[in-house]
Write a structure and sequence with these properties.
With 316 residues, the protein is an alpha/beta fold. It contains 8 helices and 14 strands. It is elongated, with a radius of gyration of 26 Å.
Length: 316
């Protein structure tokens, strides 16, 4: 006679896992899918909030209709303001090309993420947004990338002790803004500057950073838009620099410290024959480079240089 088998009930082994393990599992899901788990039970209701470490608007809103943008904005409000203890963001990335966010709301979001110790902030806006002063005194930020068609107002006090990457595709309203901003980043290793509007008149680009390893200066967009109105004085003191990229007309004057550790340089210089002396000054400062990619408009500009022992690719 066969032995009767007792029915075995369904065992929810997933819910028996610790919160930290569950949050780790949810972190691999898209945010919208992680949020959906909140309906499973009271245990899961707010668990998703602790699993979100990257808040990327472009990723979250991919395939979402514009009519639902406002719903997502309200979701971000609740996430940042209602769950202060659960949310621990590593990265906050917002782009107004994929969402409709007003400057005041963005201001509050930035403050909320900084309060939670965010490490990376990327702001891509068409118009210059209002930025909180806390953005320039954060001890948690490691990466800051700003891109908007307008000015960035740098406060008097700048203290970003752990910032290693700074990308600026903006306009600075005064010549000392960049110097003040860079000087406040004592651990800076990667600096990229691409102006996005008109810097009429004499502009002094003063970069002093003992820790800087990579520097990209791309002012070519201004030369294209305002060919007769841009004047630059470039001052660079970066003794630890390993990679240097420069894309612009030849500036009025260059003061560059000896770059003895420079490995790679990518230089595009242009404008007129009378700038030959300044072009000479620029290239002499990087004479120790091991690999040089040089793109110029007039070959005569470099006719007086000694470029021996340098790997050169010359485009004319």
């Amino acid at each position: 006679m066969a032995k009767k088998v007792e029915p075995v009930g369904v065992v929810d082994r997933i819910s028996s896992l610790s919160d930290s393990v569950l949050c780790r599992i949810l972190s691999f899901l898209p945010i919208k899918d992680a949020v959906r788990t909140s309906i499973l039970s009271s245990r899961w209701r707010y668990l998703f909030a602790s699993s979100i470490s990257i808040l990327d608007f472009e990723e979250c809103l991919q395939g979402v209709s514009k009519e639902k943008f406002n719903n997502f904005n309200h979701f971000v409000d609740r996430l940042l303001y209602i769950f202060p203890n659960q949310v621990s963001l590593e990265c906050f990335r917002v782009d107004d090309e994929v969402c409709d966010v007003d400057s005041l709301r963005l201001y509050g979001w930035i403050c909320a993420t900084l309060w939670r110790g965010v490490k990376e902030i990327e702001i891509y806006f068409e118009k210059s947004p209002m930025l909180p002063t806390q953005l320039f005194t954060s001890h948690s930020l490691v990466t800051l990338k700003l891109r908007f068609w307008g000015e960035i107002n740098v406060p008097t006090k700048v203290c970003l002790p752990n910032l290693k990457t700074l990308h600026l595709k903006v306009i600075t309203p005064s010549n000392d803004s960049v110097c003040r901003l860079v000087s406040g980043c004592v651990a800076l290793e990667d600096l990229l500057m691409v102006p996005g509007g008109s810097c009429l008149g004499k502009t002094v680009v003063n970069i002093h950073s003992p820790s800087l390893k990579r520097l990209v200066l791309d002012f070519h967009v201004l030369l294209t838009k305002f060919p007769n109105d841009i004047d630059y004085v470039v001052k660079i003191n970066a003794p630890s620099l390993e990679c240097f990229e420069y894309n612009d007309a030849v500036g009025d004057f260059y003061t560059l410290s000896s770059m003895k550790l420079l490995e790679d340089a990518d230089i595009l210089i242009s404008r007129y024959q009378e700038d030959e002396r300044n072009a000479t000054r620029l290239l002499q400062a990087i004479c120790n480079v091991r690999s040089l990619f040089l793109s110029i408009i007039e070959a005569e500009t470099v006719s007086h240089f000694s470029l021996s022992n340098i790997k050169l690719s010359l485009l004319t």
